[in-house]
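KinB-signaling pathway activation protein
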Amino acid sequence: MTIRNWVKFFFNALLIGGIVTGIIGLIVRWEFFSQYLSNGEYLEFLGAFIWMIFLGFTMSVVAQMGFFAYLTVHQFGVNLFKSLTLWNWVQLLIIAVVLFDLVFFRFKLSAGDTGRTLLYLTLLGSLLVVSILTAYFKAKWTKKHTLISALFFMIVITTLEWLPALMVRSGNIDSWVTILLFPLLAVNAYQILMLPKYNRQSDEDKAKLDSRKKARKRI
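Structure:
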């Protein structure tokens, strides 16, 4: 990927993270934001909203680091197992382990947590639905064998990026767990679906540059 296209890729992902976090934060923490509006403290409201957007920028950077780390892990896995089919089976096993860990260890719900159980089941459903849809379109737009890898990235890597929020046990944790999941999903879906487009654009840019260099040499 050329530097110019990487910069576009980076800043588009950054904007997605900021916008999604701002919107989700406004919805989830409306009670917090609404007190500023009811008191006429519009600058404080704007400041809190901008802070939420910058939080989204941070989550976007985390997601981008996770994405490029995954590209390395994926290549290492293919080389280690000497077969894409075997690596896909390993990825499916890891997906199952991660989902099991989420439900039985990270969520830590009790029989009396009816409201929290519904919330966390909704978050898990969102993770699965977005992951499956992203993997489907990835396979449809590129090659069928990318389905499992895309599913692995969307579920396993997103969960790893989400893990610090899940491990906190104090404060208004349920709200932050909710807020931080969606920018990770949005940015990761964008990255895995749009990377081929930027790679193709980079190849075209390089071809045009080579053509111009050859034209200059003829002159």
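The mean pLDDT is 90.
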